[in-house]
Design a protein that fits this description.
The chain is of the alpha/beta class. The relative contact order is 0.15. The longest helix is centred in the last third of the chain and has 19 residues. The N and C termini lie far apart (55 Å). The strands form five sheets. A five-stranded parallel beta sheet has the order 3-2-1-4-17, sandwiched between helices. A hairpin with a 2-residue loop joins strand 15 and strand 16. The chain has three domains: 97 residues, Fumarate Reductase Iron-sulfur Protein, Chain B, domain 2; 155 residues, 3-Layer(bba) Sandwich (FAD/NAD(P)-binding domain); 138 residues, FAD/NAD(P)-binding domain, CATH 3.50.50.
């Protein structure tokens, strides 16, 4: 952070030291055994369970809840992990309110679903607390697979391939594995180092080597990997961030929301993080909400999230929108940024109000801002990649790309919905397809 940015009003330690820990406690506290039993007892165990159909990773929800109800949470966890090896993190960050819980029969009939997400967390946490791994590797196949990206898709793919007996080397550009789970989600969704604890637990299956600080195009190449390995999986995520394309966007105090969240996730002392007095977040997805809420929790006085369309078009779920509002974040819709003003550092942002067709209405909004976070989408970064569909890697079937022997999944691949649980499912399915191809 530059001196100009600090002069513009960005500073650390806006709150009493004790407030930081309180503000960043677990968003959804864990259930204890009694609470889990009561919650599980509400499930009807539907034979044609809509919750299972709505789960992108195809977890047998009625089965694992029945296993909790019968006092065997470890068995429930294995049911979950068989389909979603990152079930612990997904239980914390999945928008269950728009997936499994939205279609729960209890939700439809009573307006209160079975707490599937919290029950999933109870089961997975119970088994992980034992420190054991529920799966063992098959006999070594002698095949080697490179996985590029140690995020949800890459880790899921690597684990399933290791279970099949293949040796896996996972490359990641960051200093730590975990990808989005480690660097890209709000701290209050997965506190106490859970992301790394989950990675360490996953690695107990054996057969997986992680090489951090290795970026595709800089340290490794796709051609080189194809020559050294029997198959390659690309789980790169999206490394670039869309620009606002406004004059003055380079002023001090303007940054990418993903960088802000990553810095916060890695901070050992939250009180040392600089935050503005008047913060503006531009965007309407989960990243925008995570950045806005955390700016407020760090002590920003005024936080405004501005989105170009209506709230019904925001990628952030209604739950996330309501969470932001409950923390004091102001949400402004149908407004697009047209100017950034300030002398060296940002002082205010000017927006045009627009109609449903994105045409200016003639009205404007000017917001004071000493800190602005861009959260208007991320882009794929890399050279020599397989064919693209739009701005992502084109895939067919279970992640097959235009290059023989190369698969892709997660946020970098076309067709997904940019959810952690979807990335896990795509990595798992690609691993199964890779295994089939290598077994011929």
């Amino acid at each position: 952070m530059t001196e100009k940015a600090y002069a513009a009003g960005i500073q650390s330690g806006r709150l009493p030291q004790t407030d930081y820990a309180a503000n960043f406690t677990d968003l959804h506290p864990a259930l204890d055994a009694h609470e889990a039993a009561v919650a599980a007892d509400r499930c009807y165990f539907c034979h044609d369970a809509p919750c299972m159909t709505a789960c992108p990773s195809d977890i047998d929800v009625p089965l694992f809840i029945r296993q909790i109800a019968t006092g065997t949470p470890e068995a429930a966890a294995k049911t979950i992990f068989e389909q979603n090896i990152l079930g612990g993190m997904c239980a914390r960050v999945c928008p269950t309110e728009t997936l499994c819980e939205e279609v729960c029969v209890r939700e439809v009939a009573e307006g209160k679903p079975v707490e599937i997400g919290r029950l999933q967390r109870y089961a997975t946490d119970t088994l992980m607390a034992r420190g054991v791994h529920p799966f063992t590797r098959a006999k070594a196949t002698g095949k080697r697979v490179a996985v590029v990206g140690a995020g949800p898709a890459g880790l899921s793919c690597a684990h399933r391939l290791a279970m099949k007996g293949h040796d896996v080397v996972t490359y990641d550009a960051r200093p730590k594995p975990g990808g989005l789970n480690e660097y890209g989600i709000a701290s209050y969704k997965a506190p106490e180092g859970f992301a790394q604890a989950e990675v360490d637990w996953l690695m107990k299956v054996g057969g997986i080597t992680v090489e951090n600080g290795k970026a595709l195009g800089r340290d490794i190449t796709l051609d080189g990997l194809k020559g050294d390995f029997d198959a390659v999986f690309l789980g790169l995520g999206l490394g670039g961030v869309n620009a606002l394309s406004l004059e003055g966007e380079d002023k001090d105090g303007i940054a990418d929301a993903v960088d802000f969240i990553a810095d916060l996730r890695q901070a050992s002392d939250l009180s040392a993080l600089p935050i503005g007095r008047d913060v503006v977040v531009i965007g309407g997805g989960m990243t925008a909400v995570d950045a806005a809420v955390q700016a407020k929790l760090l002590g920003a006085l005024n936080v405004t999230l501005v989105y170009r369309r209506g709230r019904d078009r925001m990628n952030a779920s209604v739950f996330e929108q309501d969470l932001a509002a409950s923390k004091g974040v102001r949400i402004v819709t149908h407004a697009v940024p047209v100017a950034v003003k300030g002398n060296g550092a940002v002082r205010e942002v000017v927006f045009d109000y627009v109609d449903e067709a994105m045409q200016p209405t003639g009205a404007q909004l000017t917001l004071p801002a000493d800190q602005v976070f861009r959260a208007i989408g991320q882009t794929l970064v890399g050279d020599g990649l397989p064919d693209l569909e739009g701005r992502k890697i084109a895939v067919t079937g279970a992640g097959r790309t235009s290059i023989a022997g190369v698969w892709a999944g997660g946020d970098c691949a076309a067709g997904g919905d940019d959810l952690t649980v979807t990335a896990v499912a795509e990595g798992r399915d690609a691993a199964e397809d890779i295994h089939t191809a290598l077994s011929r």
